[in-house]
Amino acid sequence: MRCDVRSDGVAVLTLDNPPLNVVFRGLTEALGRHLDALAADAAVRAVVVTGAGTRAFCAGSDIAEFQPLMQPGRIGPEKLELQHRVFAQLDDFPKPTVAAVNGLAFGGGLEIAVCCDLLVADAAARFALPEIKLGVFPGSGGPVRVARRVGEGRAKELMFLGEPIDAVTALAWGLVNRVTPAGEALNQALQLAATLAQRPPLALALCKQAIDLAFDSTEDAAIAAALPLSERAFTSTESREGVRAFLAKETPRFPNALHDKD
C-alpha cells in the first residue's frame, strides 16, 4: 500500500500487492491507517484510490486465505469485521474520494471502489462480483453499496451470475461516472480530484452527508435531516466567501478546513 500527497492537495492511495493487488489483512490494515492520517491532514483536500500496474485495480480477496477461515466463528473476527470497518472508513471519509479503476475490479476490489464517491474507469476495465461461483456472496458491503448505485435488478445480475461487465456497460448502469481512453483513468481521476480540492471542504462534507441520508431513511425524514446541514453550510465562513467572491466577480478563496471556526 502506497500513499503520496501531491502539492495540489490530492492524496493518491495505491493498492500495491502484485500482480493483481488482491486484498489480504495487511493491505486492509494499511488502508485504514492511511485513511486515518489523511482525514487528519488539513493539506489533503481530496483522495484518489487506484491500483498498482495495469492488470488490476484489485482482483478481490486472496482466495488462499479462505480455507482456514471456513469454520464457524472465524470469517467474521479474522477477516470481514476488519474489512467492514475499513471500507466504512472509506465510504464515510469526510473529503471527496475518486476511484481510478484500471484493469480488473473484482470481488473485494469492486467493494473498495464503490466506497469512493466517484469512479473513473479505464476503457479496458472490467467489473465483477464473482463470489457466488465459490458458494459465497460479497461480504464487505457489496450487496448494499453496489445495489445503491445500479439498482436491485442489475445488482442481482452481477451477484447471482458472477460474470464480469465491461466499462461501457458499467457506465450505462451507473456503476461508474466516467470512462476514459486506455491508460488515462488515473490522469483523469487526478484532474477530477484536483477540481474537487478547490471546492469548499465543509460544504462538500455536508453535501455528502445529505446525499447519504437519501439511502438511510424515508424521503421526508431525509429531507428534514438535511435541513440543519444546509443551515450550517449557509452560515459558514465558506458561504460568506463564496457569496462575496461571486458578487465581486472574483475566484473564491475558500478556507482549508472542514470545521468552521465561527
List the helices and strands and how they pair.
Layout: E1 2-5, E2 10-15, H1 25-40, E3 46-51, E4 56-58, H2 66-69, H3 75-91, E5 97-101, E6 104-106, H4 108-113, E7 118-122, E8 126-128, H5 142-150, H6 152-161, E9 165-166, H7 167-173, E10 178-180, H8 185-197, H9 201-216, H10 219-234, H11 237-248
Parallel strand pairs: 2-3, 3-5, 4-6, 5-7, 6-8, 7-10
Antiparallel strand pairs: 1-2, 8-9
Report the strand count: 10
Radius of gyration: 19 Å
SSE order, one letter for each helix or strand: EEHEEHHEEHEEHHEHEHHHH
Shape: globular
For the termini, the CA-CA separation is: 38 Å
- Mean pLDDT across the residues is 92
Strand content: 15-25%
Question: Strands of the biggest beta sheet: in what spatial order?
Answer: 1-2-3-5-7-10
Number of helices in the DSSP assignment: 11
Ranges with pLDDT <50 over ≥5 residues? none
What structural category characterises the helix and strand content?
alpha/beta
Largest β-sheet summary: 6 strands, mixed
Characterization of the model:
There is one protein chain. The chain is an alpha/beta fold and 262 residues long. The protein is built from eleven helices and ten strands. The strands form two sheets. A six-stranded mixed beta sheet has the order 1-2-3-5-7-10, with helices on both faces. Strands 4-6-8-9 form a four-stranded mixed beta sheet. Helix 1 runs parallel beside helix 3, helix 5 crosses helix 6 and helix 9 runs antiparallel to helix 10.
Labels describing this entry:
262 residues; alpha/beta; six-stranded mixed sheet; four-stranded mixed sheet; 11 helices; 10 strands; 48% helix; globular
